Amino acid sequence: MRRSLVIGNWKMNGSLDSTSEILRAIETTIDDKITCDIGVCVPFVYITAAQEITKPTVITIGAQTVSEYQPGAYTGEVSAHMLEDVGCSWVLIGHSERRTLFNEANAQLVKKVLAAQMTGVTPVYCVGETQEEYKSGATFDVIKDQVEALLNNSAVDLTQLVLAYEPVWAIGTGLTASPEEAQKVHAFIRALVSERDINAANMLRILYGGSVKPDNALSLFGQKDIDGGLIGGASLDAKAFVSICQKA
Ligand SMILES: O=C[C@H](O)COP(=O)(O)O
């Protein structure tokens, strides 16, 4: 049985004050009816503040990217060891904004996954098709390519991994894949993983991301292969985020 997981991705938003306000508001609103694991990926500079505010038994903190390199002369980069050192549980890898705006490609992303797995930080590897790819019917080809880049590397540990499906056309747009449409892609991803390891595939948590809100979370999370969400905009609003967590 897979335990649901909801991760907030604050992207490049927030301040020291809002980090404290939002996380305190989430912690005080959470009740014992919430049974999912909850993570929040904050900007690097707020990780330590976020750790000090939250109880790891309630909210675990993560980062939004990581270097593929081991510590050394890489000005401006942050290593997986550093993330582990400051107590990160998660790191997002291959978010579409990283793929598109920072030209991060599959080969580099797989190295990042491996770097995270050398530490205790769990990579959340994100995949998803663009609007153009979606419209041209290329969704499954694109997803296959992105997932297989990972699966083809035998050093990748499928038991220390979370996957996230985020159709790029649904991110921050208010458009969402229908629950049935998202379920098809999630089932496809699980089937790809099961070709390498059926037990790992059954245990693997696959999150959906892309305009998840309190009013559509239940129908998305109700799908058999959707194990929670990766939440952007709504994770900056404590009430909305907790409401989403209640549905997972
Ligand atoms: O990482 C989160 C995704 O990019 C989804 O963002 P969104 O919920 O604002 O659409």
TrEMBL record:
The biological process GO terms on file are: gluconeogenesis; glyceraldehyde-3-phosphate biosynthetic process; glycerol catabolic process; glycolytic process
Q: Where is the signal peptide?
A: none
Location, primary (coarse class):
cytoplasm
Enzyme class per UniProt: isomerase
- UniProt entry keywords in alphabetical sequence: Cytoplasm, Gluconeogenesis, Glycolysis, Isomerase
Superkingdom of source: Bacteria
A Pfam family matched in the record:
TIM
Give the active-site positions: H95 (electrophile), E166 (proton acceptor)
Recorded catalytic activity of this chain's protein:
D-glyceraldehyde 3-phosphate = dihydroxyacetone phosphate
Which cellular components does GO assign to this protein? cytosol
Where is the protein situated, by its record's location annotation? Cytoplasm
Q: Which InterPro entries match?
A: Aldolase_TIM, TIM_sf, TrioseP_Isoase_bac/euk, Triosephosphate_isomerase, Triosephosphate_isomerase_AS
List the molecular function annotations (GO) for this entry. triose-phosphate isomerase activity
Q: Which PANTHER family match?
A: TRIOSEPHOSPHATE ISOMERASE
What quaternary structure, including any partners, is listed in this protein's UniProt entry?
Homodimer.
Question: What family is this protein classified in?
Answer: Belongs to the triosephosphate isomerase family.
Name under which the protein is recorded: Triosephosphate isomerase
